[in-house]
């Protein structure tokens, strides 16, 4: 099934970064969410849980490989598996599973990426991955594989997860040599391309914004964390699309390197900001809006310039400003052109 208002996604299309595509499909799911991945981290599990909770899909399943070595290395988090179980996922394990498969209603993706921040491309140093969108016949065949795996896999319950969670993690030690070669940083604009291709009715059904924020050199892709905060209560509505503008503070690029989508109504919640960041931030920006990742380009200096729509940093000096769909498209096309 394709998302409302979007053009059908062509089978065989290659997907370099699957984060936005997978999360949006999960949120729109009506019947099933079938996932297989040997590795899973808490940040991705929390996003999947949030999106799944907004879906109508009752059949939610995950197959993983619950082995001590993965837990010890920190690439499989038992707490992440528990998070999904608490959101209605059935979880089972096959010790030698290595397949990365996503089947959401009538959409399917198979590829190299695990359900980790690096594997889905949600980090400044994400892995170089590649996947392919499945055709209708391939989805049916992949479902047969998944059902066979599921039938042989062993159920994973809270008591077992508690045992695995008690395994001591191994802290990475110093190495004598450094990694060799460049880090490949490819723009993640697949979901933005889908938004640009939607019909006029869908385009008119939401609001569009630019939000000013500080650059964070220690966490250059902080917008993937799943929330933003404002000084004053903003007027974002659920489904609105928001360009993130990084000003000149902390060496910021004075450009827009990312787009997120509001998945909750804004709320005054300084406690949330304290728990997820610190008290200083809670005092300055106490109004929280939960978000889903849509697109970004890295490094941040590759972001789009507001002058393309006749605006600049002063346009968002109050924290945010509304823009038209036409202005959004100008910025979005410019961001997609970096790919």
Compose a concise summary of this entry.
The protein is α+β, with helices and mostly antiparallel strands and 339 residues long.
Describe what you observe in this structure.
With about 350 residues, this protein is of the alpha+beta class. The chain folds into 2 domains: about 150 residues, 2-Layer Sandwich (Endonuclease, Chain A), CATH 3.30.870.10; about 150 residues, ph1033 like fold, CATH 3.10.590. It is about 30% helix and about 20% strand. It has 11 helices and 15 strands. An 8-stranded mixed beta sheet has the order 1-7-6-5-2-3-4-8, with helices on both faces. Strand 2, helix 2 and strand 3 form a beta-alpha-beta unit. The longest helix is centred in the middle third of the chain and has 17 residues. The N terminus is likely disordered.
At the fourth CATH level, what is the homologous superfamily of the largest domain? Answer: Endonuclease Chain A
How much beta, percentage-wise? 15-25%
Q: In what order do the strands lie side by side in the largest sheet? A: 1-7-6-5-2-3-4-8
Mean pLDDT: 90
Shape: globular
Radius of gyration (CA) equals: 20 Å
Order of helices and strands: EHEHEHHEEEEHEHHHEEEEEHHEEH
What's the total number of strands?
15
Please name the CATH topology of the largest domain: Endonuclease, Chain A
So what's the CATH class of the largest domain? Answer: Alpha Beta
Q: How many domain regions?
A: 2
